[in-house]
Amino acid sequence: MNDSNISAAAERRDLIILGGGLVGMTLALAAARVGITSHVIDRADPADLVAEGADGRASAISTASWNLFTNIGLADRLDGLGCPIDSIAVTDGMKPGRIDFTPKAEEGSLGRMFANRDLRIALFDAARDEPNIAWHVRTEAIRRDRDGHGVEVELADGRVLRASLLVAAEGRQSPTRDEAGFALAKWEYDHRAMVTGLFHEKPHGNTAWEIFYPEGPFALLPLLDDAQGRHRSALVWTVGEKDAGGVIAMPDAMFVNEVAERMHGVLGTISLSAPRMSYPLRFHHAGKVTGERLAVIGDAAHGMHPIAGQGLNLGLRDVGTLVEVLSEGMRLGLDPGDAQLLARYEKWRSLDTFMVMSVTDGLTRLFGVPGRTASAVRRLGMGAVQRIPTLKRFFMDEARGMSGKLPELLQA
């Protein structure tokens, strides 16, 4: 439901979720499925977020994240909108010795690529139909109070909401996380991601390409053909911050030429299919993700290089874990803000998050070392992965999000 339909706005609910983006709204829906009620607060207007052309980005949804969407009833709304990733080709500058990650037929795809707009439409439509969600849009929290009895949030329009637990899903610049004093391990990569969509002459065959250059990775991610039957892929091209201004200033024709040069003709002739966007790349990891009646999830808790496409998926693992911990505790009669439950959530997520982010950061640094010797060593290692099934299985399980201890919502 939307804010105009909410009566008794001060009614106490189980959760107050600050941020109604992909992670925050998925949490609200997953919680609602097990009877956990929530207030969701978002400063944006949903109509703006789903407007045609407002956001040309796409996200890789891992197998585990797709299981979550299926288990909370979103799969039908998303059916036919995602492009399967049937294989991933990894190469060091298109030199010999690439790795091909292709699961067995019975294992299904390595994930699915969705336009962010389609994900938002599905989430927002489901939220409007869910009585356990009170959705407050075009407003923000101007006061957040937490104590032993509960949580109280005052909105910019004067309304006061109450709950047992506050969840910060506000993204990388989370004011709630900063207000709570959670220390961040963080550093700049001195890189910028250039993001857009491409039309291309040859079909992609549902293959994602990860091409590593010393200045940064260059990823081509398969999308469904458009309504006119044109082949499409999403592009995430990482460039050094010192070169970013020049790339941003390029006319479209020059930009396309630079992209084509790095693609080595694998998809034939190309042209732009979406607006060009860019954003700086940073690493951050909150040392704590819980406090008194507070949990921090998604990009508010962790942000990484997009090299492995795991940022959103890591946030969705937060969702599945938090809902499982809260629902089990509430079945035992515990309050959703109980310190024991939050301690269990933090312990479960801290190891998994650290492992995924460490691997991602390590890959970023390994493939960013320039020079022929470094390239030869990388290709030697890639050849070993290509030949050794157990190593290949490890990396495919990571890509599918099926490693480690998974919450039930992320299991098939």
TrEMBL record:
Transmembrane segments: 15-36
Domain named FAD-binding: residues: 14-350
Cofactor(s) this protein cannot do without: FAD
Pathway per the UniProt entry: Cofactor biosynthesis; ubiquinone biosynthesis
Highest taxon, organism lineage: Bacteria
UniProt keyword annotations, A-Z: FAD, Flavoprotein, Membrane, Monooxygenase, Oxidoreductase, Transmembrane, Transmembrane helix
Coiled coil feature spans: none
Matching Pfam families: FAD_binding_3 (PF01494)
Cited InterPro entries: FAD-bd, FAD/NAD-bd_sf, Ubi_Hdrlase_CS, UbiH/COQ6, UbiH/COQ6_monooxygenase
Family affiliation: Belongs to the UbiH/COQ6 family.
UniProt-recorded name of the protein: 2-octaprenyl-6-methoxyphenol hydroxylase
Organism name: Novosphingobium panipatense
Taxonomic lineage of the native organism: Bacteria, Pseudomonadati, Pseudomonadota, Alphaproteobacteria, Sphingomonadales
